[in-house]
Amino acid sequence: MTKRDLPLVETGNNSMKLSPDDLAIFGGAPAFHEALHVGRPNVGDRERLLERINELLDRKWLTNQGPFVQELEQRIAQMIGVKHCIAMCNGTVALEIAIRAAGLAGEVIVPSMTFIATAHALQWQRITPVFCDCDPTSHNIDPSCVETVITPRTSGIIGVHLWGRPCDVQALAEIARRRNLKLLYDAAHAFGCSCQGRMIGNFGDAEVFSFHATKFFNTFEGGAVVTNSDDLAAKIRLMKNFGFAGYDNVTYIGTNGKMSEVSAAMGLTGLESMADVVAENYRNYQQYKRQLAGVPGVRLTTYDETARSNYQYIILEVDETAAQISRDQLVEILHAENILARRYFYPGCHQMEPYRSLFPHAGLLLPVTESLVKRVLALPTGTAVGPNEITKICQIIRLAVEHGDDVRARLPPRVAI
Ligand code: T4K
User: Fold this and answer.
1) What is the C-alpha separation between 76 and 73, in angstroms, rounded?
2) Residue 354 is part of a domain; what is its CATH number?
């Protein structure tokens, strides 16, 4: 189902907000009756999904590498042009298994500017995540900082293609080769994206996707490891199925990382409408770009339109000095309007437990991350958001910023989000 089939979110107040007095935070009517979320799931053709669910129920084959999972793996591998796709129950377990299969140990270098799962997938296995700073423009791991945190205990690097925008894959590959390190990618945001003419999924030793409900492409919960390495793929297949190499024959230590058939049914259905979702996201992105142009201190994170992208994240950076209000104040204003903007990924992994206690001074090496996590916010997009909603969101942002002085003076001293 695309946006055109959906009722637009009911708005509470159709008139434009003209002055700060109209903002909900100062007593005006909220712009939306119903909350507008970041990460509303994209659901494909519901009838086709229900057909597939009926089919799997009739077949009485619900999990354990069933026909839908096999078909999904083949289709994804083909779409990405990669040798192996191993579907999993979620992106975090897929990461944990890829990390283990690649033989990572000791210390692994990761960005702090990521969802906490990237770090936890290491720490869960008693591997130390060593946080590395990011590039201020791409928001991705900065290869020049990677070099500075390599120690004799370092076994690998995990890059994260944040917001679906590719890491500097060449520089990272060069460091990994020269320093004899494994290189994995957390590609949770980057399904359907490309880099230098190759689909994400072909870089490093392996890449990991998340197919969580909030992702551009979802299987309710789910994920996958993709790799061109036969050895790694064979290990990962064993590991995600308790190490079973056949009936009664366990050859490896493993866990349960299997994707269910109902998830694969959702995935197969979602693949069929992927192009529509990209088109909707792209239109939303273009509209945000047009309508936020020239708002002082507010910068939309842009995508390389010559590459393939899923345009799933609308990310703003708020420069408090130029905008006259802080990112957190803007989020508070938006929340009052029922626009549930998110501060992804505040406060940075290094500021969350157990890392904050383990490495209390990590922030000293992460100046770009520390500054970025205070400036970034994610806005609603996807098939659940239409042009009317985007116009209102942009208008509220513009109003708040253009009256920044006045708005700031009237806001409570401390905002709790
Ligand atoms: N690496 C990276 C870089 C990741 O971003 C993620 C996941 C992973 C690894 C791990 O992959 P998984 O193990 O999750 O497959 C959400 C997601 O739970 C998480 O999957 C995702 N990243 C992360 C960026 O976002 P929260 O804590 O922000 O989720 P929550 O419940 O607040 O939902 C986000 C928004 O989505 C809400 O505004 C409501 C909306 N929503 C959510 C769900 C679940 C819906 O409208 N419908 C829904 O069914 O983490």
Assistant:
1) 5
2) 3.90.1150.10
